[in-house]
Amino acid sequence: MSEQPDLTEVTQILSKQYAKRQHEHVSLGGGLRLVIFFGIFGLFCGLGLIVGGPLALPLIATLGFIVALWASRILRVAAQWERGVVLRLGKLHKIDGPGVMYIFPVMDNVRFVDTRTLTLDIPHQQVITKDNVPVNVDGVLFFRVDDPEKAVTTVQDYRFAISQYAQASLRDVIGGMSLDELLSERDQIQASIEQMVEAHSTSWGIHIDSIRLLDINMPEDLKRMMSRQASAEREKRATITKAEGDRDAALNLAAAATTMATSPGAMQLRTLQTLDGLGSSPSNTVILAVPVEVMEAINALKGDKK
Asked: Which comes out higher in pLDDT, residue 229 or 31?
């Protein structure tokens, strides 16, 4: 049976893949170097035929090939968004670009740096929150190189370094927060991680534009419990709202009864309004067993006896 890879090893491999430089330098001087190579090589071959004749042609052609190859490697072209960090005999010589650059083989070595806004994925990180809840969090990091010299000379691989530091900062920030804070304070978490990474990346010549959390995964049983809790909260609010509506209706009915009791004709008007609401259909027949006037007279007699 084959052994299953450890989760930590898989995370490290993915982190290196995410931080790997992809198409850092766009070769724009290939055509120019070919023109220089064939131009110098053809010139030497022509001079060999004219000056030395057929016997000296192989020697002159070989010399011309070496010179043309060396001369063609002098010119390098940097794109508008690229800067070239030139090391001459191991020491920093200059920061060149964009455009045509003169790099002398053997003596010089150039490292091209992309100054556009770059993107790095922060792979899934399993973090234990402050209230001991395991969550998987991933995100994305946006940054750019402001100082190519520092990015090349102060850190071995600035992409990999930024990726690793962002992962460590994400673990530190989320590990100090509870699950409820993690779900409700996403903007604060992103700002805290950005500040931590920016504090160290500045010395590397790198500016952090922003850090965004993409996904927060929790255990399935915890998701079900949170769903039940949310459902219970909604039912609680619905019950409270209905009870408040019943209370307001009762208060309004009590106020209406008080108004009708203090107004002599209020009950009669209410009765007539009710009859009008029944409609004029022949199928509706209303019979008043005791007219309203009789009820008022009886109430008046009761009042006189008192």
From this structure: 31
- State how far the alpha carbon of 5 is from the alpha carbons of 1, 128, 164, 195, in Å: 12, 22, 21, 34
Integer-rounded Cα radius of gyration of the chain: 43
Residue 123: the pLDDT is 86
289 contacts: CB under 8 Å, gap ≥ 6: none
Q: Is 160 within a domain?
A: yes
Identify the three-state secondary structure at position 104: coil
Count CB atoms within 10 A of the CB of residue 288.
10
Mean pLDDT of 272-288: 65
DSSP letter at 211 equals: E
pTM of the model: 0.61
How far apart CA 71 and CA 105 sit, in angstroms, is: 9
Same domain, 209 and 135: yes
- Residue 148 CA, chain-centre distance (Å), reads 26
pLDDT tens per residue across span 182-196: 888 888 888 888 888
Counting residues of the chain whose pLDDT is more than 70, the rounded percentage is 72
196: domain CATH number? 3.30.479.30
Domain total of the chain: 2
Domain span at residue 85 reads: 25-114
